[in-house]
Amino acid sequence: MGAFVAEVALRWSDMDAFGHVNHARTITLLEEARAELLFTEAERQGLLGMAEGMVVARVVIDYHSPLLYASKSLQVQMSVRELKAASFIVDYTAYAQEAVATAETLMVPYDLQAGRPRRLTAEERDFLAEWQLDAVKAENARA
Question: What's the domain range around 30?
């Protein structure tokens, strides 16, 4: 299927003293976009387990230009790569007129009851595979 696109509203409180969206708030905005994919869209497709435990194991973000509140919203394109048995990476490109940031998060499914990581279910893997870019799908097919 390719990239999932989420539109996230900017809030006045996202700005810092320098007049642009603070770096910590940018990560929160990406989290809101990711929740739309992993929780809202997954639930819409009948998959409920992801909302019961998913943690960020690593986050990397590169800023390309300041994100200003005047943009009013952030469009976030997300795709999945490195889909493994017990982890996957979500790639992000965030736009406000132009690309303002690219990022990735290493996601790990987590069993809250047991207090430890768990493996992805077959249904979760199928759902995540829908959001792999075509080049990634082709590479996985060759492997």
Answer: 4-130
